[in-house]
Design a protein that fits this description.
Length: about 450
């Protein structure tokens, strides 16, 4: 563990120069002091930013990245991709889950994420029965996060129905869960991770089609008063049409009418919104969990970001299917999809807001991601977990960039994540772009996925 001196750093109140970052023994920041003289013997770096919390991931889907791109019929849709994903979910073992997640988390660290909310609905053994240790697969994720040095907000997720009260299909039997099962998994995971600096537990509701709204109160009780509650919502137009057919309301409208949605909640995707839903979601204080790379890959649609942020709506980023890991690319696609849609530039900011697009999007995603991951303190400040990214400003084409110009360059002018070193809970996990255990974790990942890829 060692202190650090940054020539510039992004603190909660903006950019500062000559920042001394002092670590406490418990893996938090003891002190962050701008405008200081470089202490003797302390490592000096050019530029430090808070890492991005990743608010939505399905770790196992990393094992099919790039394999869902073959057109199976002229009307290929989300639902054909989902079939391939179900095949993978059906086959994966706890050992494979561990190996896939551990390397995925190492990859996330290298990209500049140090916290991930894992929306975890794969609970049961292959025959659909609960494991003897009901939290078996949840604990694989928790152990993988510890092994890689990744912060984890584990969200054991309720999945009861295939479609609006219809029983689960055979391909979904490993997801089958009741609030009682989720409570057991939450309790077991909390007990196993109570001393962890990295792991915390919330809950997930898979979607309106897969859970009954009368279980929400039970799930909120299981979660406890301050932990996050996530739900997939309004990702696909088919889902919107089904919801209207089943309830007479659109998904976000229906949820906001029947559940006490507030700042604890993260509505993942929320892609298809009317203007009234956009305003109501913004007003709720919940986070819109945007996953621009996955949403583009699956052909979901475009979130109405400009309207939403103009109503003070909060959002964060998720890597979701994990087809590609880069918060920088997520922000690039988020902003570019808006520009293409509106035929304007610099669209992702509130209507009256001027200044750097990248700077604003990065800061808002930090705040929204931290809220959705249940991290009340995040960023370079005393008391927060000591997580930071040292950016590789030497890799930028233009020299001597300062402040938000760094974030604009990182997001818009280069493809590789500009991340040189990464620390989580006071320990270096990535140095010179390399995760400390990359070779072994990569080998284990490749060994684990090989049998999953064979027919
Ligand atoms: Zn998802």
């Amino acid at each position: 563990m060692s202190d650090l001196f940054a020539r510039q750093a992004l603190l909660p109140d903006g950019w500062h120069q000559n920042v001394t970052i002092t670590l406490a023994k418990d893996g938090t920041f003891a002190k962050v002091t701008p405008n200081s003289a470089a202490p003797a013997g302390v490592e000096q770096v050019a530029c430090v930013v808070p890492p991005m919390p990743n608010l939505h991931s399905h770790a196992f889907q990393r094992a099919m990245s790039g394999l869902g791109e073959k057109r199976a019929n002229p009307d290929d849709t989300f639902w054909t991709w989902r079939k391939l994903m179900y095949q993978l979910a059906h086959r994966i073992t706890p050992e494979q889950m561990h190996a896939i997640s551990a390397y995925l988390y190492a990859e996330m660290l290298c990209a500049g994420y140090t916290q991930v909310a894992e929306f975890h609905y794969l609970h049961n053994a292959h025959d659909g029965a609960a494991y003897a240790q009901k939290a078996t697969l949840s604990l694989c994720l928790a152990n993988a996060a510890e092994e890689a040095g990744m912060g984890l907000t584990l969200l054991p997720t309720l999945y009861t129905y295939a479609l609006w009260q219809k029983p689960l299909q055979d391909a979904q039997k490993r997801f089958a869960s009741t609030p009682e099962l989720i409570a057991d998994i939450v309790t077991a995971t909390q007990a196993a991770t109570q001393d962890s600096k990295l792991v915390r537990v919330g809950v997930g509701l898979h979607s309106l089609r897969a859970v009954a709204l009368d279980t929400v109160a039970d799930m909120l009780r299981i979660a406890g008063p301050h932990t996050p509650v996530h739900i997939h919502i309004a990702e696909q137009m088919q889902e919107v049409r089904d919801c209207i057919a089943a309830t007479g309301q659109r998904p976000v409208e229906h949820l906001l009418t029947h559940a006490p949605v507030d700042a604890r909640w993260c509505l993942v995707h929320a892609t298809h919104l009317t203007e009234a839903e956009t305003q109501a979601l913004a007003k709720s204080g919940a986070i819109a969990g945007l996953c621009p790379i996955t949403e583009a890959n699956l052909g979901d649609g475009i979130f109405p970001l400009a309207d939403y942020v103009s109503h003070n709506g909060r959002f964060g980023l998720g890597s979701d299917s994990n087809i590609l890991l880069s918060p920088w690319e997520e922000l690039r696609i988020l902003e570019y999809s808006q520009r293409l849609h509106h035929q304007k530039r610099c669209v992702g900011l509130p209507s009256k807001h001027l200044g750097s697009t990248g700077g604003w999007l990065y800061r808002e995603s930090l705040k929204g991601g931290a809220q959705a991951c249940g991290l009340p303190e995040w960023g370079l400040q005393a008391g927060a977990r000591a997580d930071l990214c040292v950016l590789d400003t030497e890799a930028f084409l233009l020299p001597d960039l300062m402040g938000d110009d760094v974030l604009d360059a990182a997001i818009f002018s280069q493809t590789a994540p500009p991340v040189l070193h990464v620390m989580s809970a006071g320990q270096w996990r990535v140095r010179d772009r390399q995760h400390h255990n990359a070779t072994a974790l990569r080998q284990a990942f490749r060994q684990a996925v090989r049998p999953l890829l064979s027919n």
